[in-house]
Amino acid sequence: MTTFIPVNEPWLDGNERKYLNECLDTGWISSEGPFVRKFEELFAARVGRKHGIAVCNGSAALDAAVAALGVGPGDEVILPTFTIISCAAAIVRAGAIPVVVDCDLQTWNMEVREIEAKITSKTKAIMVVHIYGLPVDMEPIVALSLKYGLKIIEDAAEAHGLYYKGKSCGSFGDISTFSFYPNKLVTTGEGGMVLTDDDDLAARCRSLRNLCFQAKRRFVHEELGWNFRMSNVQAALGVAQLERLDEFVVRKKRMGKHYMELLSGIPGIRLPLHETKYAENIYWVYGIVLGDEIPFDAKEAMKRFAQHQIGTRPFFWPIHEQPVFRKMGLFEDVSCPVAERIARRGFYIPSGVGLTDEQMKRVAEIAIRILR
Ligand SMILES: *Cc1c(COP(=O)(O)O)cnc(C)c1O
């Protein structure tokens, strides 16, 4: 019997156990424990930022980032339609309007050339999201932010260890966020972080994360925050994982190269770019988009992989097609043909950091059988 190959498995065989035992031995399991500060400092240093504020997940990090920037009713925020719901949810929950742009067919990242036409007097920020292991082309976006006085919110949840022109992803936003969900390159089980160089924004995020407790009189609140705190147990995992990030990135790049060699002979499919003019892919996930030559869609392909004991995941569903937002009357006349297309024709195959050569070989053999 063949064993199932999951789409992702975390790798936890470094110092994770040792640091978790430290939490138990010392009794420090809450957010007050020493690993939280340590993880914040190490991670911020790694990305090249002044402040890191650890939170309970990447979606919460986006909520805190949007709130900290003071985005609110009447404001518009431009973001890619091809991303996770968390990005638009943070904007909508703040009372602001999400304005989407389509994505590029090659990189699956936001179509930077579409942004300027969407800027209005209400635009407050551009939310960029690095997708699946390649970064957004940041230079033109930084130029637009300067030209129009816009803030940049950078969702780097899929971009641990990724560089744009030699500069770390997560270092471009006025405020940047990460997720440490188990399928991310550094995991804390559940977790996230907000990063910034701005002292005031950092203080605001720390306050928002902790119910906006005040130093002067605890339990008296001037503002509403959330409990978005990360526990010492989560941060202990994070410190151990971060120690191995370079090794993980090397393995991921190797995986991407290996899959490319194994799969490039299949006609009619689009594979991730190994590199662009400004970055080398770290293959957070290894995506496949089916061309017109293939007479079925991603849903059918994923069903066939499952029959062969191989896990897959569909691509993101575009924000402008989300029923929850359509019911709110958002995105009524919006069309983004590229995102609509890759959402229906794209999926990703097992891409975990611990994936073995044998597993990749089996995935490729099945892919060839199914897609040829
Ligand atoms: C994973 C992810 C998030 C959300 O992170 P959670 O920790 O699962 O809440 C946000 N944005 C992007 C781009 C992601 O990939």
Task: Spell out the blueprint of helices and strands.
Layout: H1 16-26, H2 34-47, E1 51-55, H3 58-68, E2 76-80, H4 85-93, E3 97-101, E4 123-129, H5 138-148, E5 151-155, E6 163-164, E7 167-168, E8 175-179, E9 192-196, H6 199-209, H7 232-242, H8 245-263, E10 269-270, E11 286-290, H9 298-307, E12 313-314, H10 323-327, H11 337-345, E13 346-349, H12 357-371
Parallel strand pairs: 2-3, 2-4, 4-5, 5-8
Antiparallel strand pairs: 1-9, 6-7, 8-9, 10-11, 11-13, 12-13
Helix pairs in contact: 1-7, 2-7, 3-4, 3-6, 8-12
The structure holds pyridoxal-5'-phosphate.
Task: Give descriptors for this structure.
alpha/beta; 372 residues; single chain; Aspartate Aminotransferase, domain 2; seven-stranded mixed sheet; binds pyridoxal-5'-phosphate; Aspartate Aminotransferase, domain 1
Describe the structure.
The protein has 372 residues and is of the alpha/beta class. The chain has two domains: 16-242, Aspartate Aminotransferase, domain 2, CATH 3.40.640; 245-371, Aspartate Aminotransferase, domain 1 (Alpha-Beta Complex), CATH 3.90.1150.10. Helix content is 37%, strand content 15%. The strands form three sheets. It has a seven-stranded mixed sheet, sandwiched between helices. Helix 1 (16-26) packs antiparallel against helix 7 (232-242). The chain is globular and about 65 Å long.
